[in-house]
Specification:
The chain is mostly beta strands. It folds into three domains: about 120 residues, no CATH class; about 110 residues, Jelly Rolls (Sandwich); about 60 residues, Macroglobulin (MG2) domain (Immunoglobulin-like). Helices cover about 5% and strands about 35% of the residues. The chain has two helices and 24 strands. The protein starts with a strand and ends with a strand. InterPro entries: DUF4785_central (IPR048296), DUF4785_N (IPR031979).
């Protein structure tokens, strides 16, 4: 057992003729010479019982420093390679000769530690469990390549009308009882008193024709004058078909234009739009498949399609029919 080994980072290679890390030697104390800036990494491959630092510039008579007096340590090196033993002295387990070592290390970042270092002792570390940890949990039986549904269905439509159209009468077409109608002025003005004519030619006020009614309550698009809008759900007993919405009064406070939204929530007819992706970047090609589910053979020229951009711009699209109820994929 070597009781004393002195290691200097400035030992010359002429002293080196063997490898220490493969020799199996055990060292009780390893003195590291940290003169100048030759700080050594503490992650040596040696099986050292204690690691001492020796600073010959700051210690009288070359006496080794104690643990609490150690000044420097380096942690930035990849590793320290003990290259060789000195040829001075016998190399065996009983030899207590101080031996100079040739140290080769990689440059790194050195850290100056506080003057007073604390040694942490752990009395229970040897009693801690060293068993391998494992856990398991159940997962759902679903494929990882689950397809994302990019399809959206529309059961309604909207139309912008003028005040003159409203006074003359606007057609509202439904295909199922219980449709919801919303009238929103395009200006911050009131909506005139409206009447509705049923498919059976009954002329009713909106309150009389409504199962649910709301007026002057903000809802929906904040860019519109929603505080003056009117909403109603047509009574189911009034049936479905073509209703006529009109104003019989004239006032200077009436708005010049209106937006009418019809939501035919129970309709068997709907418009299905499916895109080939859920998001697009600039320059990407957008492909969409449009299907009108109503089992009626519509003329392709009776359908107008537009793409509305993020800035509200309308881009007209050209359509061609694939089959009776499907239109050819659009490319933009």
């Amino acid at each position: 057992m070597w009781d004393d080994v002195y290691a200097s980072p400035f030992s010359t290679s002429s002293y080196c003729n063997g490898y220490l890390q493969n020799s199996g030697l055990k060292i009780t104390k390893l003195y590291l010479d940290t003169c100048a800036d030759g700080f050594l990494n503490c992650t040596s491959q040696l099986a050292a019982g204690e690691l001492w630092f020796y600073d010959r510039d700051k210690t009288e008579d070359n006496a080794p420093l104690s643990h609490n007096q150690s000044r420097h340590s380096c942690f930035g090196f990849d590793q320290i390679l003990i290259s060789a033993l000195s040829t001075e002295g016998a190399v065996n387990e009983n030899d207590s000769t101080r031996t100079n070592l040739c140290i080769v290390f990689y440059p790194g970042t050195c850290t100056t530690l506080p003057r007073n270092l604390s040694i942490l002792e752990c009395d229970v570390c040897s009693q801690l469990s060293h068993e391998n940890l494992q856990d398991k949990w159940s997962i759902s039986n679903e494929p990882l390549n689950r397809t994302i549904n990019n399809s959206q269905k529309s059961y309604g439509y909207k139309e912008r009308i003028s005040l003159e159209q409203l006074r003359a009468g606007v057609l509202i077409t439904t295909t199922a009882p219980g449709a919801v109608v919303r009238i929103t002025p395009m200006q911050n003005k009131l909506i005139p008193q409206l009447k509705i004519k049923t498919p059976k030619n009954q002329l009713l006020s909106l309150q009389e024709a409504s199962a649910l009614f709301s007026q002057d309550e903000p809802f929906g698009d904040k860019t519109l004058s929603t505080k003056h809008q009117t909403m109603l759900q047509i009574k189911p007993e009034l049936g479905f078909g073509t209703f006529i919405l009109k104003s019989e009064e004239h006032s200077s406070n009436d708005a010049d234009a209106y937006l009418i939204n019809v939501y035919d929530k129970f309709s068997p007819t709907y418009l299905d739009v499916q895109t080939d992706s859920i998001h697009y970047q600039y320059g990407d090609k957008l492909t969409a498949k449009i299907t009108l589910v109503d089992y009626i053979d519509h003329d392709i020229y009776d359908i107008n399609a537009s793409l509305i951009g993020p800035g509200g711009q309308y881009v007209p699209l050209k359509l061609s029919k694939v089959k009776k109820t499907s239109l050819k994929p659009l490319q933009y």
